Automatic annotation (TrEMBL), chains A, B:
<dbReference type="InterPro" id="IPR029026">
    <property type="entry name" value="tRNA_m1G_MTases_N"/>
</dbReference>
<dbReference type="InterPro" id="IPR029028">
    <property type="entry name" value="Alpha/beta_knot_MTases"/>
</dbReference>
<dbReference type="InterPro" id="IPR006700">
    <property type="entry name" value="RsmE"/>
</dbReference>
<comment type="similarity">
    <text>Belongs to the RNA methyltransferase RsmE family.</text>
</comment>
<keyword id="KW-0963">Cytoplasm</keyword>
<dbReference type="InterPro" id="IPR046886">
    <property type="entry name" value="RsmE_MTase_dom"/>
</dbReference>
<keyword id="KW-0949">S-adenosyl-L-methionine</keyword>
<dbReference type="GO" id="GO:0005737">
    <property type="term" value="C:cytoplasm"/>
</dbReference>
<keyword id="KW-0489">Methyltransferase</keyword>
<comment type="function">
    <text>Specifically methylates the N3 position of the uracil ring of uridine 1498 (m3U1498) in 16S rRNA. Acts on the fully assembled 30S ribosomal subunit.</text>
</comment>
<dbReference type="GO" id="GO:0070475">
    <property type="term" value="P:rRNA base methylation"/>
</dbReference>
<dbReference type="InterPro" id="IPR015947">
    <property type="entry name" value="PUA-like_sf"/>
</dbReference>
<dbReference type="Pfam" id="PF04452">
    <property type="entry name" value="Methyltrans_RNA"/>
</dbReference>
<keyword id="KW-0808">Transferase</keyword>
<dbReference type="InterPro" id="IPR046887">
    <property type="entry name" value="RsmE_PUA-like"/>
</dbReference>
<dbReference type="Pfam" id="PF20260">
    <property type="entry name" value="PUA_4"/>
</dbReference>
<keyword id="KW-0698">rRNA processing</keyword>
Length: 222, 222
């Protein structure tokens, strides 16, 4: 038996108009996906009965997406796409050239839930509080490799190298990284700079393209 | 000397407030990119003088993107992304399960121009009038290979095969292809079905992911 929160009950019974007896798919990130039946339907609460497991629990690859938050709509979009592409953690980073509007982590986390429901994932990546890139790098565990989409490498595409294991994809802000950031990243031996073609990609496009390359090399697309 | 259209003059002098003597980058799809100087600035007309070529003319690879138009905002988005990723032609196709709102080709073409300006391309892909997928296939020149993003292949990723030459990437509608369409496409020897990971991607995500795989295998990202 799974009790529903008030927003869940509102969505299922107020918005979607489900009644008692209706069937739906549920997941909680720990027990796979289940067919569940509505056994109590009120506007403010409700209860589901899990009937049968339909998917085993699987996790995303141990991949983070770090990106510099941009305009609200495109930030929402990057979170949606990161979930579809398959990441374990989404970390907004503030760079020297980030023109950061306020990032509403709770709203981004809600987008991540919706995207997971939409794409058939049975987990929801965590959206972390925004942090300064410099601080993130100060505390970095060098065991986690970084794939950095780098405009300065434009046109010189080479296949992703490195090794299987924890990774993070890092996408810069639309103005690029600052010279200081670029120097620091270039000097880290766990950072691999990757060209994403001869044109300048927007950050959202770059995120999907970089995640595609990673997923087909090291991830769960293989 | 390059005379400006009224909308161009309005944008440069009304919106961007450029004055005589200002410099800007221009391209026409045939002569590369040039630095140009404003020599006449009026609200309804204007004249530029080309000063120096800054990029040679290059074209996109001979790649088409065919996709089933979806909600307006996401269709706009797919056009923008196709330009950034590098395609020669964008062809909206109506499939059995396409819930087609009206497609405004002139508006999509304007989006393509903006995206080209943004990403540093020196050409603008043509946006074709929407056509039924069945008719497009009736008239298909089998010399052009098709890479088809196929949900039914989910999880079974294999590197893109085929050969260098003209290609089209085909992305289905969010409800997938109909069984009849799927059978027909599966029977065509110039169609290659490609899995795009274990999750169900939205059409816009699938387009970018498929274009990434094509560009790194056969395109101008190599």
């Amino acid at each position: 038996m799974v009790p529903l929160s008030q927003p869940q009950a509102h969505y299922l019974f107020g918005v979607m108009r489900l009644a008692e007896g209706a069937m739906l798919s549920v997941f909680d990130g720990q027990n796979g996906e289940w067919d569940a039946r509505v056994v109590e339907a009120n506007k403010r609460r409700g209860m589901l009965e899990c009937v049968e497991q339909t998917k085993p629990q699987t996790g995303p690859p141990d991949l983070w997406l770090m990106f510099a938050p941009i305009k609200k709509a495109r930030t929402d979009f990057i979170v949606e796409k990161a979930v579809e592409m398959g990441v374990a953690r989404i970390l907004p980073v503030l760079t020297d050239f980030t023109n950061a509007e306020r990032v509403r982590v709770d709203r981004l986390q809600a987008h991540a839930v919706e995207a997971a429901e939409q794409c058939g994932a049975v987990y929801v990546p965590e959206v972390a509080e925004p942090q300064k890139l410099a601080k993130v790098l100060d505390r970095w565990d060098s065991f986690r490799q970084i794939m950095m989409g780098d405009e300065a490498q434009a046109g010189r595409f080479a296949p992703l190298t490195g090794s299987v294991g924890p990774w993070a994809v890092l996408i810069g802000p639309e103005g690029g990284f600052s010279p200081a950031e670029r120097d620091r990243l270039a000097g880290l031996d766990y950072v691999q700079r990757v060209a994403l073609g001869p044109r300048i990609l927007r950050a959202d496009t770059a995120a999907i393209a970089a995640l595609t390359l990673w997923q087909t090399t090291y991830g769960d697309w293989r």
